[in-house]
C-alpha cells in the first residue's frame, strides 16, 4: 500500500523534496551491484511493470541508469522486466493453493495495531475480500519469486514500477549490505531485505546505518526489496498467501531471516497516480478508524476534441459513451438530436458548449458531420461500424472501434492521448436513440434553492435557470414484474430483507449500533442518537439499510425527523464503486426545508470512481415543519428522471443532465440519523437536547423486476394499516 498517498501536507511536501533532491546526489557508483557472477553482489533487478504502462518502465530505466554497478556498467544491464498480471484481464478462476483472496480485520491489526480497536473474536471474524488489483499484484510478486527460486543468481532486487531511489541511495545501500550477517566467504546471510517500507511497529530505528532484523510484524509495502534464492524458495513453500502481499509477508518473519535498511532508501512516487484500490480502507472507514474524510475531487484538464462517435445500432455505441464519460468527457449520447443551442455552438465551432463528446446522435448526417469537422479543427471521430466520416478529416482524426476489437481501452487511450485507464471497459447494451421533450411533470410553487455544487465532468456548469436538462417524451416505465418489500408499524422489521447497521463513515461523529434501533408494537420504530463513549466515537446512533440493491423503483419512508441542530436525518439510496447516490436529508437546524441531492460517477460495478464532496444539493422550502408530524417522503427513481414526493405529491424533479446524468447502477435503500462533522452544513450540535430521535412508521420499496432481485421470495405481504 502506498501510504504516502494518504499522508498530510508535510509528508507529501517532504516526499516531493526528496524526489527532487535525489538528482543532486553525487555518488552514483552502487558497488553492491555487479554484472558478473560474484556471490557477494546483487546481480539481477526485476521490475514488475504492466504492459499498458510503458511510460513507467521507461521512467524507471532512466532512474536506474543514474547509477553504475561495480564495474562501471549502468544498472539497466542487469534489469529484467516482468510483465505484471493485469487485474483487468484476470479471467481464470483463482488457484487457492497459491493465493486465498481474503483476510481478516484481525490480520490487519496484527501488522498495524490501532488503539481504537482490539484483536478479538469480532475482528477475527470480520473477513475482507481483496480487490482485483491486490490479487494481481500478489500474483505478480509470487511469479517473480519463482523466477528467483529457479534462477542462476543468489539474490535479486525486486521493484514495482512506481519507485525512485532516495537521496544517498548508493551510499546507504552499501552500508546496509555490509552490515548484514555474513558467512565465512563474506556472503550476506539473509532471506528478505526491505529497502522500501513503512515501519508501523514500535521498534525504534538506530541512528547509524546498520540494517535491522525483523522478528515481528509491522512493515508495509513490497515495492522494493531484495530476495535471496533460498528466501524465494521458503516463501513458495509457505503458499498459499492470503490477503495483500505486503500484509502476508509480515506473517513469515518468524520463519525467515528478514531485515530492513535503517531507513527506507527506495520510495514509491506519489506524483504518479496510483491505479490500485485497497480493500482495507472502506472497512477502516466503516468501523470508525478513519476519522477524517478526504473526498476525491476531480481536477480540470483539457480534453481533446470535441469527440463525435457514429455507427450502427448494436455496434457498442452506448458502451462507448459510458467509456468516454469514465475518461472524463462530458458526454451527450443516444438521442435523435442535440438541443438546438448546443447544435448551433457545435456547428459554428464555439467552445462554450455544455458537452465535449457526442455519441450516437441521429441528426448527425454526413453534411452535419462535414460542417462539424470544418468548424472544429481539433474534432475527433470514432466509428463503431461501417459509417462514413467527412472526407476532409485526416487519418489521425478517425478511430475505427468495431465491436470485435479486443482492447478498446488501448485504442481509445492512444487516440485521445491519455493514460490507459485502470477500469474494466463497460459492457452496456445499446439503448438506441431517444426523443427529447421540453416537458416536466413537476407543478409546484415550492421554492427550490441550489447550494454549491461539486465541479466534475458529470455535473454541467451552467445557469440552472437557463438549462432545464433533457426530458423524455415517454417516461421509461418499470417492468410489470415488480417486488414490493415493506415494513409498517404493526409488523417486525424483516431481518432477511433489512439490516440494522453497525458501522459509520468518516464524516459521521456517531457510531451506528443495534441498541439504538427499537421497535414498538403499533407505534413503529425509533432511531436514537445518544452521547455514548465508544472506542471510535463519542456518540452512537441508528441506521437501517436494505440487504439488496435495486435498479430503479419507488422508495418511501413515513417518518418524523429530528430537529436537533447538528444532526441529519437521511432517507437515501447509495453505493460505492462507482459512487452514486440519491438523497433526502433533513438538517436538524431547520426542518421546514428538505435537502435533495444526487451524486453521479460513471462506470460498471467495481469502477473505483468515487468523486464528490458536496454533490449537487438543492434545498426545498416545504411550507411546513417536517418535525411536527409524520409525512411520507419518497424517491421515485426511473431511468430518465428522479422525482421527490411528499405525501404522494411531486415537489421536485431532475431529468437527464439536470445537472447530472441519472444514476444507473443498483443502489441500497437507507434510513439513518447521524451527527455531521460539518457545523457549516448541519449547524452546531445542541448537546442539551441529546438524546434525539427519528420516529419511523413505515418503509416501502417497489422495485423493478428487471433488476434480477435475489430477495423477491422474502418480500413480505403488506400489513393492513
UniProtKB/TrEMBL annotation:
InterPro entries: Beta-glucanase-like, Beta-glucanase/XTH, Beta_glucanase, ConA-like_dom_sf, GH16_AS, Glyco_trans_25. The keyword Cytoplasm does not apply. It comes from the Bacteria. Its EC number is 3.2.1.73. Keywords: Glycosidase, Hydrolase. One of its GO terms (biological process) is carbohydrate metabolic process. GO terms for molecular function: licheninase activity. It catalyses: Hydrolysis of (1->4)-beta-D-glucosidic linkages in beta-D-glucans containing (1->3)- and (1->4)-bonds. Residues 413-696 form the GH16 domain. The active site is at residues 581, 585. PANTHER family: XYLOGLUCAN ENDOTRANSGLUCOSYLASE/HYDROLASE PROTEIN 8-RELATED. Belongs to the glycosyl hydrolase 16 family. This is Beta-glucanase. It comes from Terrimesophilobacter mesophilus. The lineage of its organism: Bacteria, Bacillati, Actinomycetota, Actinomycetes, Micrococcales.
Amino acid at each position: 500500500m502506498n501510504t504516502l498517498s494518504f499522508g498530510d501536507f508535510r509528508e507529501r511536501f517532504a516526499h516531493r523534496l526528496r524526489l527532487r533532491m535525489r538528482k543532486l546526489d553525487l555518488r552514483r557508483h552502487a558497488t553492491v551491484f555487479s554484472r558478473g557472477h560474484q556471490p557477494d553482489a546483487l546481480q539481477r533487478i526485476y521490475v514488475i511493470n504492466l504492459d499498458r504502462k510503458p511510460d513507467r518502465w521507461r521512467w524507471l530505466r532512466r532512474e536506474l541508469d543514474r547509477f553504475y554497478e561495480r564495474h562501471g556498467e549502468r544498472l539497466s544491464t542487469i534489469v529484467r522486466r516482468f510483465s505484471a498480471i493485469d487485474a483487468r484481464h484476470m479471467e481464470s478462476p483463482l488457484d487457492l493453493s497459491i493465493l486465498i483472496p481474503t483476510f481478516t480485520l484481525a490480520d490487519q491489526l496484527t501488522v498495524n495495531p490501532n488503539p481504537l480497536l482490539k484483536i478479538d473474536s469480532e475482528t477475527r471474524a470480520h473477513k475482507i475480500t481483496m480487490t482485483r488489483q491486490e490479487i494481481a499484484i500478489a500474483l505478480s510478486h509470487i511469479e517473480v519469486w519463482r523466477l528467483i527460486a529457479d534462477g542462476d543468481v543468489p539474490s535479486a532486487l525486486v521493484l514495482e514500477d512506481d519507485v525512485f531511489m532516495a537521496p544517498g541511495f548508493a551510499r546507504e545501500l552499501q552500508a546496509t549490505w555490509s552490515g548484514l550477517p555474513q558467512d565465512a566467504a563474506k556472503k550476506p546471510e539473509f532471506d528478505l531485505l526491505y529497502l522500501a517500507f513503512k515501519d508501523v511497529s514500535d521498534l525504534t530505528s538506530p541512528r547509524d546505518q546498520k540494517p535491522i532484523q525483523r522478528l515481528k510484524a509491522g512493515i508495509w509495502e513490497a515495492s522494493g526489496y531484495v530476495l535471496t534464492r533460498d528466501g524465494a524458495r521458503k516463501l513458495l513453500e509457505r503458499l498459499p498467501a492470503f490477503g495483500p502481499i505486503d500484509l502476508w509477508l509480515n506473517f513469515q518473519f518468524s520463519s525467515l531471516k528478514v531485515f530492513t535498511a535503517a531507513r527506507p532508501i527506495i520510495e514509491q512516487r506519489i506524483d504518479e497516480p496510483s491505479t490500485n484500490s485497497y480493500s482495507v480502507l472502506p472497512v477502516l472507514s466503516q468501523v470508525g478508524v478513519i476519522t477524517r474524510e478526504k473526498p476525491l475531487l476531480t481536477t480540470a484538464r483539457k480534453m481533446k476534441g470535441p469527440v463525435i462517435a457514429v455507427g450502427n445500432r448494436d455496434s457498442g455505441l452506448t458502451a462507448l459513451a459510458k467509456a468516454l464519460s469514465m475518461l472524463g468527457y462530458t458526454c451527450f449520447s443516444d438521442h435523435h438530436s442535440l438541443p438546438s443551442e448546443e447544435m448551433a455552438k457545435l456547428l459554428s465551432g464555439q467552445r462554450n458548449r455544455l458537452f465535449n463528446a457526442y455519441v450516437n446522435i441521429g441528426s448527425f448526417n454526413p453534411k452535419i458531420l462535414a460542417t462539424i469537422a470544418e468548424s472544429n479543427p481539433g474534432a475527433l471521430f470514432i466509428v463503431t461500424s461501417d459509417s462514413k466520416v467527412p472526407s476532409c478529416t485526416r487519418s489521425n482524426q478517425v478511430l475505427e472501434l468495431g465491436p470485435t476489437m479486443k482492447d478498446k481501452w488501448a485504442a481509445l487511450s492512444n487516440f485521445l492521448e491519455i493514460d490507459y485507464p485502470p477500469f474494466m471497459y463497460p459492457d452496456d447494451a445499446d439503448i438506441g436513440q431517444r426523443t427529447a421533450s421540453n416537458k416536466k411533470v413537476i407543478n409546484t410553487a415550492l421554492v427550490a434553492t441550489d447550494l454549491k455544487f461539486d465541479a466534475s465532468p458529470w455535473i454541467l456548469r451552467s445557469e440552472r435557470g437557463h438549462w432545464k436538462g433533457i426530458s423524455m417524451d415517454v417516461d421509461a416505465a418499470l417492468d410489470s414484474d415488480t417486488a414490493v418489500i415493506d415494513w409498517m408499524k404493526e409488523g417486525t422489521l424483516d431481518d432477511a430483507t433489512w439490516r440494522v447497521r453497525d458501522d459509520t463513515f468518516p464524516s459521521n461523529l456517531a457510531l451506528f449500533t443495534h441498541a439504538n434501533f427499537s421497535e414498538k408494537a403499533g407505534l413503529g420504530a425509533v432511531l436514537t442518537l445518544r452521547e455514548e463513549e465508544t472506542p471510535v466515537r463519542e456518540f452512537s446512533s441508528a441506521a437501517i439499510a436494505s440487504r439488496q440493491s435495486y435498479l430503479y423503483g419507488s422508495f418511501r419512508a413515513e417518518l418524523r425527523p429530528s430537529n436537533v441542530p447538528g444532526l441529519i436525518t437521511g432517507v437515501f439510496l447509495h453505493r460505492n464503486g462507482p459512487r452514486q447516490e440519491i438523497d433526502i436529508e433533513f438538517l436538524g437546524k431547520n426542518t421546514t426545508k428538505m435537502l435533495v441531492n444526487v451524486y453521479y460517477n460513471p462506470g460498471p460495478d467495481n469502477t473505483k470512481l468515487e468523486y464528490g464532496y458536496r454533490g449537487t444539493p438543492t434545498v426545498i422550502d416545504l411550507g411546513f415543519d417536517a418535525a411536527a408530524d409524520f409525512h411520507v417522503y419518497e424517491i421515485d427513481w426511473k431511468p430518465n428522471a428522479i422525482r421527490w414526493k411528499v405525501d404522494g405529491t411531486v415537489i421536485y424533479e431532475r431529468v437527464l443532465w439536470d445537472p447530472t446524468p441519472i444514476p444507473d447502477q443498483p443502489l441500497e435503500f437507507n434510513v439513518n440519523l447521524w451527527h455531521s462533522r460539518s457545523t457549516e452544513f448541519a449547524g452546531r450540535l445542541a448537546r442539551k437536547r441529546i438524546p434525539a430521535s427519528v420516529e419511523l412508521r413505515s418503509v416501502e420499496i417497489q422495485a423493478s423486476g428487471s433488476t434480477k432481485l435475489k430477495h423477491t421470495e422474502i418480500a413480505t405481504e403488506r400489513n393492513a394499516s
